[in-house]
Specification:
By secondary structure, the protein is of the alpha/beta class. The chain is built from six helices and five strands, in the order αβαβαβαβαβα. It has one domain (20-139): Response regulator (Rossmann fold). The chain has a five-stranded parallel β-sheet with strand order 2-1-3-4-5, with helices on both faces.
């Protein structure tokens, strides 16, 4: 029994340290999700889950409770706009970033109506996405300094 107590001790110590912000990534392209994960993790974020369509996104978001969701617009089964509309109602405190090649199709008015906090064009690059994620997560928290 004492061994079990010692084993649990480091876990408690880890839980008191600051945790990395948890991001859920949804895109129907495996390679796109891989690239997004690479850039986010390189910048200190944790990708807590990945999904390939809007229906999976909703299920995973409820289960994983991420700090932020990166969501593609054009996906099978349920597109990103429909998923964002549901997610923003069920998880209103979780910012959603729409990552798309169809920024002109979505438009700021529709994005705002479905609860999307930011739209990033995939052609703008992953550094812009990471900067957006960082900005949204910092604006949702009180300054630590």
């Amino acid at each position: 029994m004492p061994e079990q107590q010692r084993a649990a001790s480091p876990q408690r110590a880890l839980s008191t340290t600051a945790r990395k912000p948890r991001i859920l990534v949804i895109d129907d392209g495996d390679s796109v999700r891989d690239i997004i994960r690479l850039f986010l993790e390189r910048d200190g974020f944790e990708v807590c889950g990945e999904a390939a369509d809007g229906l999976e996104a909703i299920e995973l978001a409820k289960k994983l409770k991420p700090d932020l969701i990166v969501l593609d617009l054009a996906m099978p089964r349920m597109n990103g706009a429909d998923a964002a509309s549901i997610l923003s109602k069920t998880m209103p405190d979780v910012p959603i970033v729409m990552l798309t090649l169809y920024q002109n199709v979505l438009g700021n008015a529709l994005a705002s109506a479905v609860g999307v906090k930011a739209i990033i064009d995939k052609t703008d690059g992953m550094d812009k996405l990471v900067a957006c994620v960082r900005s949204l997560l910092q604006s949702d928290r009180s300054p630590a300094d």
